[in-house]
Amino acid sequence: MSRLWLRAHRVRTHGALWLGALLLAACGRFANDDAGKGTGSGTRIVSVSKQHTEILYAIGAQQDLVAVDVSSVYPPDTKNLPTVGYHRALSLEGMLAAAPTLLITGGRGNMGPEPVVQQLEALKIPMKEFVAKGDDLESTKALIREMGAYFHVEPRADSVVRALDADMARALAPATQQVDTPSVVIIHYGRANNSYLTILGRSVAGQMVRWAGGRMALPDSSGMRALTSPEVIAKADPDVILLTDFGYDRLAGMQEIMALPGVGSTQAARTGRIYRVEENDMVYLGPRTGRNVEALRAILHGSPKA
To answer: Does the structure show a pLDDT above 90 at 35?
Structure first.
């Protein structure tokens, strides 16, 4: 998430000329219409889902990708593309500049603001929502295969799924010899407005922690919650604290992190087990999930550098 709020919108808009071009490109095409299935001459794809963006690159179907939302930060090649805003705060001007003929989404409920979404629908830009939701491991593999079929790269998609299976098998294998289950707190975005936004057990990150041989120190009542009382973290007393990159990078080193209310008195602080993690490695499942679980296991059971 390192560029989620910091990355500037590189918008090139030319008013009515772009609007006219976009209307022509979208003419006769409707939401989720598969008539233009896959890639082809003149295809201009905009992805507003970081999960789908990564899969596009993994299956080798990114050649017609012309813009992404600002949360699409992997692979690094995405930094060469214009952005159209955050997927819940899309920029109509950015969309007009990209002139998409296909918009890949994680579902209409993951797009906003509503007035912009309604304008995009009025322009009849095809919005492709895949059937597989990618919210668990099997569904993620189904999504990779579904996207492979849509873009006519089925062998490449099958290869990505096989690699994911092999990576997960390797990441889970040490669990049979595991002797401890460290408790974990994940602080998302760092600290703002005198509260911590924390990722809880009912989340992809929570599942990854469990795969990696840990347990979530805070109740699993939801996927994410703002904690207005730092004492909650102190009382949870986690063995390990993970800070996502955006919050971690805003702080001036470990001394400032240790001074955060509620953090300094924890077992994690006393033993120096506070680590930076990439937000985009933790909040969705994809081709690298097995490798990310393996890296997380090294944090929870090894001695990586902070």
So the answer is: no
CA R_g for the chain: 21
Detail the DSSP E strand segments found in 15-161: 45-47, 65-68, 85-86, 89-90, 102-104, 127-128
3-state secondary structure of 215: strand
**CA–CA distance, 23 with 259 (Å, rounded to integer):** 54
Query: Is residue 250 included in any domain, yes or no?
Result: yes
Read off the pLDDT band of 5 (50, 70, 90).
very low
- Domain containing 135: what range? 15-154
Beta-ladder partners of 45: 65, 102
Taking the C-alpha atoms of residue 217 and residue 232, their distance in angstroms, rounded to an integer, is 10
Per-residue confidence band for 303, with pLDDT thresholds at 50, 70 and 90: low
Angle ∠(109,114,115) on CA atoms, nearest 5: 155
Report which of residues 32 and 294 the model is more confident about: 294
* Contact yes or no for 264/256 (Cβ under 8 A): no
Average pLDDT of the residues of the chain: 84
pLDDT at 40: 62
Three-state SS at 198:
strand
User: Is 24 in the same domain as 134?
Assistant: yes
How do 45-47 and 89-90 pair as beta strands? unpaired
Q: Could you report how far apart the first and last alpha carbons of the chain are, in Å? A: 18
Question: Does 194 share its domain with 128?
Answer: no
Q: Which residues contact 60 (CB under 8 A, 6 or more apart)?
A: 153, 156
Contact 100, 124 (CB under 8 A): no
